[in-house]
Design goal:
With about 140 residues, the chain is an alpha+beta fold. Helix content is about 30%, strand content about 35%. It has a 7-stranded antiparallel β-sheet, with no helix packed on it. A hairpin with a 2-residue loop joins strand 3 and strand 4.
């Protein structure tokens, strides 16, 4: 009986973080990382990975590191707005070929806290300023 109660309490403690959606880049603690993998299947399979930790982001394409960028607190807020738009974007149907797949993974001290996957046709419009991952990639030297 105590095991059931313990499991129920653990489930209740974890549930708010799962319901809240992906973590914010803005409020990352020093031991936390958020990685966003973006896979395009048209015209060719291309996989971009953005790893946010502290005030920097490491960007790679198809496993090859393209570089690191420093991000400001304002950039982090705009990136969070973009990820919010992705989370609530128009889901891709079977008829939509090449719709990108976003996978957002939150890690703390090397352990996975949560993983969210979205296959979207287009992100939802945001009234607030956004910084898309493509725009972030264009900042690389």
């Amino acid at each position: 009986m105590t095991q059931i109660i313990t499991h129920a309490l653990l489930w209740l403690l974890c549930m708010p973080s799962l319901l809240a959606g992906p973590p914010k880049v803005e409020g990352l603690k020093p031991d936390e990382r958020v990685s966003v993998t973006l896979i395009y299947s048209e015209p060719a399979i291309t996989k971009y990975k953005y790893v946010f930790s502290g005030s920097e982001v490491t960007i790679s394409e198809n496993g090859k590191t393209l570089g690191k960028l420093a991000i400001t607190a304002e950039d982090a807020v705009h990136i969070d707005q973009h990820l919010w738009a992705v989370e609530r974007g128009k889901k891709a149907g079977r008829s939509v070929m090449g719709a990108p797949v976003y996978t957002i993974k939150h890690e703390s001290s090397g352990k996975t806290i949560g993983t969210w996957t979205y296959r979207i046709d287009e992100p939802k419009e945001s009234r607030k300023p956004v910084l898309s991952l493509g725009e972030l990639r264009k900042r690389l030297p």
